[in-house]
Write a structure and sequence with these properties.
Number of helices: 0
Largest sheet: 7 strands, mixed
Order of helices and strands: EEEEEEEEEEE
Structural class: mainly beta
Strand content: over 45%
Shape: globular
Radius of gyration: 13 Å
């Protein structure tokens, strides 16, 4: 299983970005797809995830600003990020949980003040 993430970049505070991640390979069912991020000098943390049934979970810091969605047929997950803040800066990693956890390569999001 491979995950390919895209959509990072540089944006000003208050701006928007959308991240996308596509899983490929021999996949029966992806139980959970999600996004984590790691800021410089900090541990990786959950941003948001979504189950195959559509149940979503968000970090308190992004509630009301970020929206996660997935397409089970295409094995893709998207993260719409609005009203971005400098503290959202970090490397964003896509995660797919099947029988094990699979991680994407990471995409850098930089929010300038």
């Amino acid at each position: 299983v491979q995950l390919q993430a895209s959509g990072g970049g540089l944006v000003q505070s208050g701006g928007s970005l959308e991240l996308a991640c596509a899983a490929s390979g021999t996949i029966l069912e992806i139980r959970v797809m999600g996004w984590y991020r790691q800021a410089p000098g900090k541990q990786r943390e959950l941003v948001a995830d979504v189950t195959s049934g559509g149940t979503t979970n968000y970090a308190d810091s992004v509630k009301g600003r970020f929206t996660i969605s997935r397409d089970n047929a295409k094995n893709t997950v998207h993260l719409q990020m609005n009203n971005l803040k400098p503290e959202d800066t970090g490397v964003y990693y896509c995660l797919a949980t099947i029988r094990a956890d699979y991680w994407g390569q990471g995409t850098l999001v930089t929010v300038s003040s």
